[in-house]
Design goal:
homodimer; 350 residues; alpha/beta; Quinone Oxidoreductase, Chain A, domain 1; Rossmann fold; seven-stranded mixed beta sheet; 27% strand; globular
């Protein structure tokens, strides 16, 4: 198969609010000769699966705005965490047939620079377990699982020992379900309260191990927290009004871990008013990003081994919403901001 | 002098906004027989000096609202940190002539329960240095100094080693001047930026050791911080819009210590909008109160010895605004919310 069709998702324009496929993201097809395309010392990858994540909205920005994650480049394909197979290699560290995980281009076939170029999140070889689908490495065994695992270990595990209550907002996403399940396993004494916006999500959070679940669209967050609190640990995926309600209901010396800002990706977000409570209750609030900072990097140790075992044993589930093909990737990236898909949203490319 | 006049400041009503002497606080005079007033196992104290602090506004609340510091009781005298001399004692741990420091009643003469009753901040014996006025023990050697010292040691000293910039808001108060001076002494590599609201305060912050001072009423906080930042450590006495401007200008892994809420004691306070920045920059924000929590209590060790030495050497100044007599105590408590007095506000009673 030397000349084949290469589907590509091109980043076309910065969105000002919600992502619109066709406007901000354009699907194109081009021929590629997989036998002869120049590798320049790198590798040719066949994409198996790609991840759709909320944070990519933050990468859809002008390059002058500095953030940890690099901006997408207009006119070039979107890239994000994915799993692929090496077809050809000029990199001595990789050979055809190797599975790689890292930032992959949203294309059926893409050329990546050699590892020695040290590109951001460059695809690296990993041992895919034969019993697990590749997309598991984008969910419980990928960035979301790693976020939950390393943030828990670095900042929450010790505090959890002397805590009674954990509140997880947006608890039906891939980080939320992982952290609920992991908390259930490693700190079984905790009362776990979790919120989300649909009956299916409440069910998923229950299955993951939450004791109290509620729909924030139909139930008052502050009332639930007042009834089941005070809250010792708040694992915050949303910020906004939910964060304010949580601050009001935190226990003395409570710990707020800011993991996501789901309520504020596309629209102006409600701020927080209860700043005086930080003093009255000696609260602590910390923001984290996966792989950012010595604490988070150190806490990643042991993740693949421990999480793979838990997934294989069924103790941590990998719940997925699947889109198919690069052609659908634009919808996968856009929909998660509106429809709020269940669990991890992935694009199955192969 | 068996029967003398006892001036008393009675807490009369909860304020809804600013404190009004005569309405919320009433000055009365009553005779007291210092020879015969029953002690019930406690002590008779002659008050030397009393402290006026912003946080007392938080104690002027309904008793049903729970906070670390207890509410004032309507119909009873105000109490707060003060220094007195024991006149009579039925407590075996205290003898006439002893200096005591702790919560004193806003009266010329007051009876305190024995130490064994373990009242909140019960007056305890201390060795007043003969060269220092009693009111020093309400400022640099009292609660404000202890707040700055223990919070710095518990949470900031380690971070300061690898930091370049420190921003202190409301830096001309007793905690602000202490922390600026202490940072200058113990972390001389730091660029110290400090804000306040009058030329006299800017001068005082300069004298205390700040490198960059600005008037937040006439200068845009965000612009100053952008020019001299990014900020590694923000020592926050005000919250509100200043906190939001600081969050915008924090460095990656920046540390925000919430020490005061000066902008919000009497009026609705501006909230903070930049909650997403906590994630982008991996920020940490912690609220503290003096003597509250293991970390803060442990960090108090060595305070009296080290701070007394620094004050005697003139390395930490004790800047004061003085009011005279219990009759003026109501104004002292009210004025600090409006006039914003310079340094530590004290009532000299003797």
């Amino acid at each position: 198969m030397p000349v084949v069709t290469n589907g590509r998702l091109i980043y076309a324009a910065h969105p000002s609010t919600f992502i619109e496929p066709g406007v901000h993201l354009q699907y194109v097809e081009e021929p590629i000769d997989t036998d002869t395309v120049p590798l320049n010392g790198g590798i040719l990858i066949k994409t198996l699966t790609l991840s759709s994540d909320l944070y990519i909205r933050r990468r859809m920005r002008d390059a002058s705005v500095k953030m940890f994650f690099p901006p997408l480049t207009i006119g070039k394909p979107v890239d994000n965490f994915g799993v692929g197979v090496v077809l050809r290699s000029e990199d001595p560290e990789l050979t055809p047939g190797d599975h790689v995980y890292g930032y992959l281009s949203f294309e059926n076939y893409s050329v990546a620079p050699p590892l020695s170029a040290k590109a951001f999140q460059a695809p690296k070889k990993f041992d895919k377990h034969p019993d697990l689908p590749a997309s598991t490495y984008l969910g419980s065994l990928g960035m979301p699982g790693q976020t939950a695992y390393s943030a828990w270990k670095a900042f929450i595990a010790e505090k959890a020992k002397s805590s009674k209550t954990l509140f997880v907002s947006s608890g039906a996403g891939p980080v939320g379900t992982f952290v609920i399940a992991y908390a259930r396993l490693t700190a079984p004494h905790l009362k776990i309260i979790a919120s989300a916006g649909s009956p299916e999500k409440l069910e998923l959070m229950k299955e993951s191990g939450a004791d109290v679940v509620f729909n924030y669209k139909t139930t008052d967050t502050a009332e639930v927290l007042a009834e089941h609190g005070p809250i010792d640990i708040y694992w915050d995926h949303v910020a906004g009004a939910t964060l304010d309600a949580a601050i009001q209901n935190m226990n003395y010396f409570g710990y707020i871990l800011r993991v996501g800002t789901n309520s504020g990706y596309n629209e102006n977000q409600a701020g927080i008013k209860n700043t005086a409570m930080f003093i009255h209750k000696s609260l602590l609030m910390r923001g984290i990003q996966v792989g950012f900072g010595d604490d988070m990097i150190k806490a990643q140790e042991g993740f693949q081994e421990e999480a793979t075992k838990l997934v294989l044993e069924g103790k941590i589930k990998n719940n997925e919403t699947r889109y198919h093909g690069i052609k659908e990737a634009g919808n996968a990236l856009a929909d998660i901001h509106r429809i709020q898909t269940l669990g991890k949203t992935v694009i199955i490319v192969e």
